[in-house]
Amino acid sequence: MRRGVVSFSVVSVFSCFTFYLFPFSLTESPQAQQAPAPKTYDLLLKGGHVIDARNRISEVRDVAIKDGKIAAVAANLNAADALKTVEVPGLYVTPGLVDIHAHTYTGTGERGSYAGDNSVYPDGFTFRVGVTTVADAGCAGWRNFEDFKQRIIDRSKTRILAFINIVGNGMRGGKFEQDLTDMEAAPTAEMAKRFPGLIVGVKTAHYQGPEWTPVEHAVEAGTMANIPVMVDFGTGRPERPVAELVTKKLRPGDIYTHVYSGLRGELDPSGHVNPGLIEGRKRGVIFDVGHGGGSFLWRVAVPAIKEGFLPDSISTDLHIGSMNAGMKDMLNVMDKFLAMGLSLDDVVAKSTWNPAREIKQDGLGHLSVGAVADVVVLRVETGRFGLTDMNGARMDSTQRLMCELTVKDGKVVYDLNGISRPEWRTLPPDYGPAGDGHWDALNPARGTTPGTQRGRGGAQPAAGPARR
Ligand SMILES: [Zn+2]
Predict the structure, then answer these.
(1) Distance from C-alpha of 202 to C-alpha of 185, rounded to nearest angstrom
(2) Fewer CB in 10 Å around end: N or C, the chain?
(3) How far apart are the CA of 468 and the centre of ligand 1, in A?
(4) Pairing between β-strand 69-74 and β-strand 97-102 as defined by DSSP bridges
(5) How far does residue 448's CA lie from ligand 1's centre (Å)?
């Protein structure tokens, strides 16, 4: 109520002011002050082929967004009901991509460390390839998670979730990651419970010794916090075979990443998928790609896929050692599975709804009405392309995915070819930013962004939506 009173008095003062200074404009000024009638939708993506695995949609549909949420998905929504309509015929419209294996705890200045220089600032690598959510894969442990949160998570536009490392010091290199005494379940679980919905799993990685301790303690922490464990199984050791890991040590819902690395016996000596992995999948263990700089080989992936051992989720393992090597970005990893014969529907499912479910984030990775409006517009380009693995071996391909438009929380955050922008000659000679803050995070005109005080109408800021 109080806000209404304040707004009213601002308008009244402005009216009097107008009257005394510009009496001739009396007939115009009340109209000029009236906000345009609110539209049903802020943003409408029209005519694209929607792929939404959760809702079993793979057909041409319009997608409408209002207040940062999906408002409607249907054939032939009316463009007149939308503040902004973007025509996307011939393109694919999917949920924002969810990359559950990335390394983003940078900025500490620590050399040679994933809690430092080896990680990347996520915003430089995400929206341009359609990724709206990443899960950091264990860069921080319970000792430095809060530093990671304030340094990166809270300051990024990308939605960042995290697997907390079972190592208290996180992924700071050998001295720390091989220290069995710093792998404590209780403080790890405690930190995870302090940040539910942000810490979505426990990670164990890079262990070289023969002991099961890192896995056992990670599972213990995951059980206490009721979140899954993601395993990078480190050095392959006969004392702890991968078959035993996925058939005995891990729980259903735990995640085995780097599944096509070939480094820990994912294929048996005869070149077939390790029967233990098949058994593990039957138990409900999840298999994730985690391509990275050293965890994807054609000679492992191709025979595995031919035998039907597909990944549950596609992820990058993005870091400074992978991003310019065989692994380029999320779309490049998706391209590899298209090249191996998976359908686009399947590849999108494994990059959206599947990973969201794996980390128990059921609100992400789909386009249900009411869901967070993270939406991507993709183009399938055809031509002659090459895709390389961790050893630099190439597979030729004839199609690749390009990201045309990325929408996060209902606003355009990336637009490769300006499909949401006006042609410049249609604008006034002295044009300024022409977007509207209801749908545009890139070039909103002053006063169009809901929840800011810059508006002309004297509106007070609404409480901003929660970040996640
Ligand atoms: Zn990794």
Answers:
(1) 10
(2) N
(3) 23
(4) unpaired
(5) 40
Lowest-confidence segment of 27-36, 245-254, 357-366, 417-426 by average pLDDT: 27-36
CA distance 2 to 460: 10
Q: How far is the CA of 153 from the centre of ligand 1 (A)?
A: 17
Q: For residue range 434-459, list pLDDT tens digits in order.
A: 899 999 999 999 889 987 644 333 33
Ligand 1 centroid vs 137 CA: distance in angstroms? 6
What separation in Å is there between the alpha carbon of 166 and the centre of ligand 1?
A: 14
CATH topology for 95-397 is TIM Barrel (3.20.20)
Q: How far is the CA of 91 from the centre of ligand 1 (A)?
A: 32
Tokens for 93?
Answer: 């419209």
Distance from Cα 193 to the centre of ligand 1, integer Å:
23
Distance CA 153, CA 150 (A): 6
Spacing, Cα 102 to ligand 1 middle (Å): 6
What pLDDT was estimated at residue 104?
98
User: At which residue do the structure tokens 């009244």 appear?
Assistant: 12
CA of 96 to the centre of ligand 1 (A): 21
Q: How far apart are CA 127 and CA 405, in angstroms?
A: 8
β pairing state of 255-256 and 375-388: unpaired
Helix (H, G, I), strand (E, B), or coil: what is residue 155? helix
CA of 139 to the centre of ligand 1 (A): 8
For the chain, give the number of residues.
468
- The ranges assigned to domains in the chain are 2-34, 41-94+406-414, 95-397
Element counts in the chain: helices (H) and strands (E): 12, 15
* CA 206 to centroid of ligand 1, rounded, Å: 9
Dump pLDDT digits (tens) for 222-263: 999 999 999 999 999 999 999 999 999 999 999 999 999 999
Ligand 1 centroid–CA 290 distance in Å is 7
- Give 229 Cα–ligand 1 centroid separation in angstroms: 13
Q: Does an H or E element contain 151, and which?
A: helix 145-151
pLDDT of residue 380: 98
Mean pLDDT of 129-141: 98
If you classify domain 41-94+406-414 with CATH, what class do you get? mainly beta
Amino acid identity for residue 242 in this structure: V
Q: What is the DSSP letter of 1?
A: -
CB-based contact 318:327 (threshold 8 Å) = yes
Measured in degrees and rounded to the nearest 5, phi and psi for residue 14 equal -65, -40
